[in-house]
Amino acid sequence: MRCDQAGEERAPVRDEGRRGFLRCAAGLAGVAAATGLGREAAAAAADRSASGLRDGGRPLPDRVPFHGRHQAGILTPQQLFAGFVGFDVLAENREGLTELFQRLTTRCRVLAAGVKPQDEQVASERPTPDSLSITLGVGASLFDDRFGLSGHKPRHLKAMPAFPDDRLEPSRCHGDLSLQICAQHPDAIVHVLRDLARETDGLLRPRWRADAFLNPSRPSGSPRTFVGFKDGIVNPDIDSAREMNRLMWVTPPCGEPEWALGGSYQVLRLIRFHIEKWDKVPVARQEKIFGRRKASGAPLDGEHETDPPRYRDDPHGRKIPLNSHIRLANPRTERTDKSRFLRRSYNYDRGFDRAGRMDLGLVFCGYQQNPERQFATVQRRLRHEPLSEFITPIGGGYFFILPGVRDADDWFGSRLLKKD
Question: Where are the annotated segments for Disordered (predicted)?
Fold first, then answer.
């Protein structure tokens, strides 16, 4: 099944869009209680907040700078909680879209500076730092004939295709805009959504959302997913400008529109785990499926999480199977090196489905310079991998993350929307 927006009607009435946004934001408020964020995640949040350190010791500031060449929330050390929302734009013309982007910029700038939304303000208490970051992206559908932007679409931006192992649900895919909100407390995400609902005044309609969080690493190292393995062990070196310009940011050699320089492509995937089926698999087989030890995260030919697998010494896959997840995803050859990208994923827990099965999974989030060269190439290598028997991608989308807001006079998409 392919996910596209053909035939879907856009809400003609602003008030309906606003009510839909508010219903979406209000629904987020019950997620912690209804989906199991609960005591364990809250305790983990307290422990990790107390340390103040993320990503192997990288400090997480109380306030994440809003202005810059690139948006926050990409290279920012991962916060404990995240909300991802896909929106359809209800603005009727370029002027309305410009107004929407300017309103979003104004509020995001204020919120990132530490000012609490109106519904969260308590005059007698000192505000709690949330390490808030808000990251805005645009989808391929924004570049249709509504706003005169069709000639300015980023080169590789398109609706996310369905890959062979996907079961995409149209209601959980795509959108004109993507919003990623990350913070150290789950309620901060809800408050930000409520604030933006008031400020956008019916210019947006929520299409889908996913609330997510990090599990503790137990006892150290990278966080774990609900299949029990560590996630995000290997990423590009974000401290290397050369690496970032080669794999992450849109630069002049990419041949993209000039307005897009400094941006990045975002791939979001809502991936459900078939956890009951997975739990019946012996740990030894699980480890061969991943290519790593479940306890330590080390590759099957190593001792430590950060040990690089020695594929050249294991050409027949006797230690790390040739069809293991890590070997397919990153073969570590000169030819495949250009397909690496930055993973910034989170876990989700939506309680139980109608059949009584646990609805657990991953909100996969990847940032890159070119989704066809990077994410799609990796996805094709993973086609029908052994892990695909236990997971199903059900939603998400391709988005282009706008360049950063440079200063107090700039706003999201200014260089795009000032085009003739």
Answer: 292-318
Per DSSP, 224 falls in state B
326 neighbors 343 (Cβ within 8 angstroms): no
297 and 305 Cβ atoms separated by less than 8 Å: yes
Radius of gyration for the chain, computed over Cα atoms and rounded to the nearest angstrom: 21
| pLDDT for position 278 | 98
Task: Return the structure tokens found at 212.
Answer: 């997510």
Say if residues 291 and 319 touch (Cβ distance below 8 Å): no
The residue extents of the domains of the chain are 11-139+175-213, 222-402
Question: What pLDDT is recorded for position 123?
Answer: 56
The predicted-structure confidence for 3-45, as pLDDT tens digits, reads as follows 443 333 333 444 444 444 544 444 444 333 333 344 444 444 4
Q: CB-side exposure of 178: number of CA atoms within 13 Å?
A: 30
Average pLDDT, the chain: 88
Burial 57-92 (b: 16+ CB within 10 A, else e): eeebeeebebeeebbbbbbbbbbbbbbbbbbbbbbe
169 CB neighbour count, 10 Å cutoff: 14
